[in-house]
């Protein structure tokens, strides 16, 4: 069975991925939802099928596994599911001393935050370029703008992703692919969560809702792509660190940590 174009969202079963899924469903975009947690993934897919007139395909896969990006691309090709928008959202972060964190988990973070994104983007691009509408949204982080002690590998993965995404934006501009690099700060929870964290977030402006970040990214996509740092305080912090000698930034962050 042939479908119209789809938006593929990785890490779609929770948080920012779920926010993108709902925002795109409201825009009547067909969706491919990808996650490694089956139960919440299929629950979201069923919810969107009931509430919107779109096609929703749910694929359970662990993108941190070697070759997973290529395997996913083959599944989409065999199912004749063309991708017009790729949202590289899957990823996770670890906090703690580098020497104290299990190396297995740190290498898994490298594979998911970087290798899987490069592999999936590379594998999907040839067929995406055949589509009239096409775009890529890469979810990085403000953590990628500076080295962060006690999150050393995580901040390094986001620095890589930001650099890769911004370079890719220029390479693909002539091909008509809009590439958005999203660098949010700390995120709150989905929905109407009234926890102390979310209340403090609204007051301080530090934490943002996933819905706000998704809407911001989709607006940048509609405007042709580019770098976006959602939130006034996040923008200010990224700008302010440019005024501090680079060698001092890790020392200051280590004290805060």
List keywords for this structure.
257 residues, alpha/beta, 7-stranded parallel beta sheet, 48% helix, globular
Question: Mind explaining what this structure looks like?
Answer:
The structure is a single chain. By secondary structure, the chain is α/β, with parallel strands linked by helices. It has helices at residues 15-26, 38-51, 68-78, 103-128, 152-172, 196-204, 210-222, 232-240, 249-256; strands spanning 6-10, 30-35, 56-60, 83-88, 135-139, 178-182, 226-228. Strands 3-2-1-4-5-6-7 form a 7-stranded parallel β-sheet, sandwiched between helices. The longest helix is centred in the middle third of the chain and has 26 residues, at 103-128. The radius of gyration is 18 Å and the shape is globular. Residues 192-204 have low confidence and may be disordered.
Strand arrangement, major sheet: 3-2-1-4-5-6-7
Backbone shape: globular
> Could you list the spans in which at least 5 consecutive residues all have pLDDT below 50?
192-204
Helix percentage range: 40-55%
| Total number of beta strands | 7
């Amino acid at each position: 069975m042939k479908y119209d174009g789809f938006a593929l969202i990785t890490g779609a079963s929770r948080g920012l991925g779920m926010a993108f899924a709902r925002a795109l469903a409201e825009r009547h975009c067909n969706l491919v939802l990808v996650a490694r947690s089956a139960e919440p993934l299929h629950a979201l897919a069923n919810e969107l099928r009931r509430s919107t007139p779109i096609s929703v395909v749910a694929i359970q896969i662990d993108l941190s596994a070697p070759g997973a990006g290529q395997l996913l691309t083959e599944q989409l090709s065999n199912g004749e599911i063309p991708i017009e928008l790729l949202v590289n959202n899957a990823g996770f972060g670890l906090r703690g001393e580098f020497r104290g964190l299990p190396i297995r988990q740190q290498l898994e973070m490298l594979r998911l935050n970087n290798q899987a994104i490069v592999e999936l983007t590379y594998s999907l691009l040839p067929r995406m370029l055949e589509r009239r509408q096409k775009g890529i949204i890469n979810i990085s982080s403000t953590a990628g703008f500076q080295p962060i002690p006690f999150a050393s590998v995580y901040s390094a993965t986001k620095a890589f992703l930001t650099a890769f995404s911004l370079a890719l934006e220029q390479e693909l501009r002539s091909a008509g692919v809009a590439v958005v690099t999203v660098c949010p700060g700390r995120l709150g929870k989905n929905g109407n969560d009234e926890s102390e964290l979310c209340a403090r977030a609204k007051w301080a402006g530090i934490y943002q809702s996933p819905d706000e970040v998704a809407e911001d990214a989709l607006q940048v996509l509609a405007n042709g792509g580019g770098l976006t740092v959602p939130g006034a305080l996040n923008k200010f912090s990224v700008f302010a660190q440019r005024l501090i000698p680079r060698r001092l930034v890790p020392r200051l962050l280590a004290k805060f940590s």
